[in-house]
Amino acid sequence: MDTLITVGQLVLSLSILIVLHEFGHFLPARLFGTRVEKFYLFFDPGFSLFKKQIGETEYGIGWLPLGGYVKISGMIDESFDKEQMEQEPQPWEFRSKPAWQRLIIMLGGVTVNFILGFLIYGLVLFGYGEEYFPAENITAGIAVDSLGQEIGLQNGDKILRVGNVPFERFNDRIVLREIAINNARTIEVERNDTETTVDVDPKWVDLLTRYENKNSRLFVPRVPLVVARVGEDTPAEEAGLEFEDQIVSVDGVSTPYFDQVTEQLQSKKGQAVRLGVKAKESEHVRQVDLTLTDEGTMGVAVAPPDYFYDTERQEYTLAEAIPAGIDQGINFLGDQFKAFGQMFAGKIKVTESLGGFASIGGMFGKTWVWERFWYMTASLSLILAFMNLLPIPALDGGHVMFLLYEVVSGRKPSDKFMERATMVGFVIVLGLVVLANGLDIWRWING
Predict the structure, then answer these.
(1) Contact, 221 vs 140, CB < 8 A?
(2) What is the dihedral sign for C-alpha 53, 94, 40, 120?
(3) pLDDT band at 86 (very low <50, low <70, confident <90, very high)
(4) For residue 287, what pLDDT band results from cuts at 50, 70 and 90?
(5) Which letter does DSSP use for residue 414 in this model?
(6) For 183-233, what is each residue's pLDDT tens digit?
(7) Per-residue confidence at 85, pLDDT binned at 50, 70, 90?
(8) Which of 111, 303, 356, 369 could be joined to 437 by an S-S link, Cβ 3.0–4.6 Å?
(9) Are strands 253-254 and 246-250 parallel, antiparallel or unpaired?
């Protein structure tokens, strides 16, 4: 069921984006009197799952979910319709239209994706607002995971700045982005009531962007271990632990925080331990004896950070949300440009950051959360626009490149040249798709 939910979100998101992208080509084509022969969601080599002729356009759904297309008369595209191109140009064909009209038609798809991405970001902010932990509310500082420890952070640190950026909203992704994208080389922290500088080695640009670390946390808010749920038939249930009990010691060692409890338990796997336990709003500490599992666990779910710390939610009116969504989208695109720069500089490995449909689908999660679904759809819309503008023949950016050449020089590339260039571009794009999805398969096999 988890897989079906993930796949369902991916298919729905891509379907929305593909249909609207192709509509961005379709609408100006029709406005300029250009015939559109096909409008397809997904590709249909050999056969289609559904098709219906309406006027001069065939609308359909293909069986190969690698994208979609509109087939515009008189245009050299992935259909490679040589027979049509060998005929005399007709007034309703793409090749008969002025260069500026053809340029608008080709830019229509990415324009829709840019507008859609910004709009969805804004509407998500309007509908859901932004809930976050103010960093100043996390009074106990951070609990550091292994990656954060290797960088040089310590449990209890309070992060003040990453590079020159103040750490105002508690989120480890901010630290990751500043290091990997913006080349931050220092993290300022308050440690034991003293401001300390943690120097960040440049190697972390590569390490933090590796696929194996994609879902790894650098740190989380440091919290006590308070029981949120006791599992059935577990050591905790047998020992009588209850909802909202707090573990304050293990075998006489004080453990006011979750990370300290787990450190002690992991050192005593499979052994009998004595826990110091306080009930909610009680100062009395009772002693509880239990035997840990071989994994060093006792069978409880723990209270999340918002049990201990207050969050804030920034609400937006529609008039505020749209500009904020545009800013969010521009910042997202800026990060993508910077990431490409890091790749070209050799600081981020393409094979570590590239992923196919499985990688994209995994970002939607295994539960259907509409806020996350729309946020991901907005991000994918901007990525789709960005990637389609790359100057590769067969992509919109390739067509735009040749059209701009025509506008500037006054010379139109020959149909034969465009046919060959499109074939080369198609092979490049297909190769990238195979590489991206092949990396997913390789990661799964070696998982």
Answers:
(1) yes
(2) negative
(3) low
(4) very high
(5) P
(6) 999 999 999 999 999 999 999 988 888 877 877 899 999 999 999 999 999
(7) low
(8) 356
(9) antiparallel
User: Please, are residues 94 and 106 in contact by the beta-carbon 8 Å criterion?
Assistant: no
Residue 410 Cα to chain centre, angstroms: 42
pLDDT of 362 over the 70 cut:
yes
In whole angstroms, give the CA distance from residue 203 to residue 206.
6
In angstroms, the CA 285 to CA 413 distance is: 83
Parallel/antiparallel/unpaired status of strands 300-302 and 253-254? unpaired
Which DSSP letter does residue 413 get? P
- In the DSSP assignment, the letter for residue 295 is T
Amino acid at 117: G
Q: What is the pTM of this model?
A: 0.81
- Give the Cα separation of 109 and 429 in Å (integer): 17
Alpha-carbon torsion 399, 402, 407, 411, what sign? negative
Q: Which two tokens stand for residue 276?
A: 């110091």
Copy the structure tokens of residue 240: 């009588």
Mean pLDDT, residues 269-293 taken together: 93
Residue identified by tokens 């105002």 is: 168
* Euclidean distance between CA atoms 4 and 12, whole angstroms: 12
- Whether residue 182 is predicted with pLDDT greater than 60 in this model: the reply is yes
Token pair for 441: 């398969």
75-101 as b/e: b if 16+ CB within 10 A: bbbbeebeebbeeeeeebbbbbbebeb
| pLDDT band at 421; cut points 50, 70, 90 | confident
DSSP secondary structure string, 161-219? EETTEE--B--HHHHHHHHHTT---EEEEEETTEEEEEE--TTHHHHHTSGGGTT--SE
| Planar angle of CA 162, 164, 169, nearest 5 degrees | 50
Alpha helices, H only, 271-388: 318-344, 350-353, 357-362, 370-388
Contact 444, 359 (CB under 8 A): no
